[in-house]
């Protein structure tokens, strides 16, 4: 494509920004909360909305049923490289609703300290990001009459509830979905105005156990002293998970961790990440993580074991003087390098069971999933082409970054479809995803559209 044609596409994006925002508002109004069955009809409506919008781009699109929520699949073009673009249209629940400053499904544009932001559930995660690619395709079609390459669209409605239908759907439709490269938009920028391509993602292991003690809740006056207290015992076990340097103490936990090289460390030091601002935004004053690693290394390249929930005994108002029969704990581990979630699960359970005493027993939840870490193949020429395209748009060198979170779809593309993935997104650290008053910067939406237009030009 000539530079003049790309300039015309970018100009079209600028001219049509208000219309693009209006279309996004239409999608944001749909209450596509995937975890709550009460919203199933709204999830279906969001899928229908996307099918209709894809068809306006000349895409052959359809809604595909799954055991839970539908997938949306679309195809367009028959020449050039074949790209698959993935996004998800479901959103997190809005609870606690009383902490929202406005109706989460009545999106609007707000002036926030001189910066325009879009407010509403799903603005950043992931409807606003999904629509940056859709609007880039719209401008391409308007200027050139067609899209620059062969594109498959895959939109999921279950990402926020663990994607139970995703892998079976991909396996059943592998021949249709396989492409040269997958593009994923469900990510963000390492710092304001710093375009970023994720080069590695941490994996995830979830587990949950219940520690059993007495046969029933006991009167703490009659049994206080001789009776084992599961809450006290579970606290001791949890305290044994880490040493005083923040390192996890499970046997073999670090066996398959891969230390990052000095070159990557040097890149991360100059990527624009502000450690003090990052900590301050979360109300933190100093790192409590594994020493002697920096905050960025802890977030992107080191594994963790975190306690996500701990409960037992009386939870109501006032006092109830009992020794509880049971105590409960929810755990997640973030995984890096070649760590195997099944191996870590075995080590975790072995550690807990080795700590039991006073006749306590443990039961485990066996329905929780795990996924290994993902490392992107940045040696592929498309990664440098996309990095240069982002650099051109943002007037700031784009960077390859790690991500502390887990996006299992990236690994599924590799294991199920033997396809590499490239993750590019424009969310900001302060977008409040999964929280009340979620937002997405209008500039991120606008420049995100322009960025995808440049990436399409570079990859085509």
Content of β-strand: 15-25%
The stretches of 5 or more residues where confidence is low (pLDDT under 50) are: none
Q: What separation lies between the terminal Cα atoms?
A: 8 Å
Major sheet summary line? 9 strands, mixed
Overall structural class, as computed from helix and strand content, comes to alpha+beta
Multimerization state: single chain
Summed over residues and divided by their number, the pLDDT gives a mean of 95
The global form is globular
Helix count, DSSP H or I runs of 4 or more residues: 15
Gyration radius (Cα, Å) is 24 Å
The residue fraction in helices comes out at 25-40%
Find the count of extended strands (DSSP E, 2+ residues): 19
Description:
- This protein has 460 residues and is an alpha+beta fold.
- The protein is 35% helix and 21% strand.
- Strands 1, 2, 3, 6, 7, 8, 16, 17 and 18 form a nine-stranded mixed sheet that branches.
- A hairpin with a 2-residue loop joins strand 4 and strand 5 (115-119).
- The longest helix is centred in the N-terminal third of the chain and has 18 residues, at 127-144.
- It is globular and about 85 Å long.
- 42% of the residues are buried.
- The model has no long low-confidence stretch (mean pLDDT 95).
């Amino acid at each position: 494509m000539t530079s003049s044609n790309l300039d015309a596409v970018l100009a079209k994006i600028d001219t049509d920004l208000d219309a693009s925002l209006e279309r996004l508002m239409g999608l944001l109004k749909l209450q596509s909360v995937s975890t709550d069955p009460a919203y199933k009809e709204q999830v279906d409506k969001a899928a229908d909305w996307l099918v209709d919008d894809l068809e306006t781009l000349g895409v052959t699109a359809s809604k595909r049923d799954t055991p839970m929520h539908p997938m949306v699949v679309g195809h367009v073009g028959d020449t050039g490289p074949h790209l698959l673009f993935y996004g998800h249209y479901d959103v997190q629940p809005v609870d606690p609703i009383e902490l929202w400053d406005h109706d989460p499904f009545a999106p609007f544009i707000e002036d926030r300290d001189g910066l325009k932001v879009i407010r509403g559930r799903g603005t950043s995660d992931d409807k606003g990001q999904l629509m940056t690619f859709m609007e880039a395709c719209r401008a391409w079609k308007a200027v050139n009459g067609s899209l620059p390459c062969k594109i498959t669209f895959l939109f999921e409605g279950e990402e926020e509830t663990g994607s139970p239908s995703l892998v079976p759907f991909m396996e059943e439709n592998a021949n249709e979905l396989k492409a040269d490269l997958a593009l994923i938009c469900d990510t963000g920028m390492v710092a304001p105005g710093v375009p970023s391509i994720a080069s590695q993602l941490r994996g995830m292991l979830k587990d949950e156990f219940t520690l059993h003690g007495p046969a029933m809740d006991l009167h703490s006056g009659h049994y206080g002293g001789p009776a084992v207290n599961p809450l006290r015992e579970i606290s001791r076990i949890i305290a044994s998970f880490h040493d005083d340097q923040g390192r996890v103490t499970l046997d073999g936990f670090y066996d398959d961790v891969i230390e990052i090289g000095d070159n990557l460390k040097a890149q991360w030091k100059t990527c624009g990440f502000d450690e003090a601002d990052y900590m301050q935004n979360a109300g933190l004053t100093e790192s409590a993580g594994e020493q002697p690693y920096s905050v960025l290394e802890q977030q992107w390249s080191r594994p963790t074991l975190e306690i996500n929930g701990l409960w037992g005994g009386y939870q109501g108002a006032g006092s109830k003087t009992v020794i509880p029969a049971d105590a409960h704990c929810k755990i997640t581990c973030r995984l890096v390098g070649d760590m195997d979630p099944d191996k870590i699960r075995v080590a975790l359970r072995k550690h807990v069971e080795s700590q039991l005493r006073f006749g306590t027993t443990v039961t485990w939840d066996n329905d929780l999933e795990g996924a290994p870490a993902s490392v992107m193949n940045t040696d592929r020429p498309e990664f440098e082409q996309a990095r240069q395209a982002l650099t051109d748009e943002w007037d700031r060198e784009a960077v390859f970054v790690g991500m502390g979170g887990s996006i299992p779809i990236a690994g599924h593309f590799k294991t199920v479809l033997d396809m590499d993935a490239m993750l590019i997104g424009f969310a900001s650290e302060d977008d409040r995803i999964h929280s009340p008053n979620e937002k997405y910067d209008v500039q991120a939406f606008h420049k995100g559209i322009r960025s995808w237009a440049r990436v399409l030009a570079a990859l085509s």
